[in-house]
Amino acid sequence: MTIQERLLQIKSELAPSVKLVAVSKTKPASLIREVYDAGQRVFGENKAQDLAEKYPQLPKDIEWHFIGHLQTNKVKYIAPFVHTIHGVDSLKLLTQIDKQAEKFDRRIQCLLQFHIAEEETKFGLDYREAEELLTNEALKNMRHVQIAGVMGMATFSDDEVRVRYEFGHLRSIFNQLKETYFATDPAFKEISMGMSGDYKWAIEEGSTMVRIGTSIFGNRNH
Ligand SMILES: *Cc1c(COP(=O)(O)O)cnc(C)c1O
Which residues does ligand 1 sit against, CB inside 6 Å? Predict the structure, then answer.
């Protein structure tokens, strides 16, 4: 299959309500252009400098998502154009995004990243930490960020029961936050979960955004 056929194959499996983020990390602009020409407009990158380098080489109607861990000192590279940042897990980062977005009079959509997998990682919030963040007074004055939902990564495993359980956990976190903090805010609506290996399960567990790289672009050479 060509890259364009793979894109169309995946798109045909997604309900219109599920947004496809084509994860183009490590791939050159020329390849991204091929996927763009097949109709894809939403792309995801996980390194701020790579994204800042690709942005000027590609059409301006691309909706760019940042999907990895973002260091506060790198926000400035992507603030002029990034649409959504998926990995927000601290007030410090959110504060910096707000500050940089203000310079360009923009509002950047942010997703709170939760740690749902079995694997140990220093990234991602738990529920209590999210509550602390969401009840912080400083948040009320941030006009250049829009908290639009949650994001998480399941354990890298083919154990369907476990992976579905973790996705279900993220959905219940979303529901609880929605009810408690965003009941009257229609912008809080996204559950970003599902990658090449597990997106079908993620969708069945309530995903609204899948982040798919390998199944579209092929393997990455590390
Ligand atoms: C790389 C990456 C993906 C895509 O992974 P694939 O297995 O290639 O589909 C999704 N989300 C995040 C956060 C990533 O870093």
Answer: 23, 25, 46, 67-68, 153, 195-197, 211-215
